[in-house]
Amino acid sequence: MQKPLTVLNQTINRPVIVELKAGREYRGILDGYDPHMNLVLKNAEELVNNEVVRKLDLTIVRGDNVIYISP
């Protein structure tokens, strides 16, 4: 079994899907993270109810809002 931070480390510079509380989702390239699972995504799309709300060159997602991260 792999530890979560090991999986995140292997996913750097690769696409991820990040599901957040309140039905919000981000899809983008994982640029970095910290031990609290705060994430930095580049070339990201913010989705609400599966519809793209906006596109972001760079965004930071606070770890305590994350439900899951899918590489």
Helix content: under 10%
Helix-strand topology string:
HEEEEE
Biggest sheet descriptor:
5 strands, antiparallel
**Rg, please?**
11 Å
- Overall strand count: 5
The level-1 CATH class: Mainly Beta
Low-confidence stretches: none
Strand order of the largest sheet: 4-3-2-1-5
Give the overall form.
globular
At CATH level 3, the topology is SH3 type barrels
Mean pLDDT: 93
Q: Provide the structure class.
A: mainly beta
Strand content: over 45%
Q: How many domains?
A: 1
In the CATH hierarchy, the architecture is Roll
So how many helices? 1
- Cα(first) to Cα(last) distance is 16 Å
Describe this structure as you would to a colleague:
With 71 residues, the protein is mainly beta. The protein has one domain (4-70): SH3 type barrels (Roll). It has one helix spanning 4-10, and strands spanning 15-20, 24-33, 39-48, 51-61, 66-70.
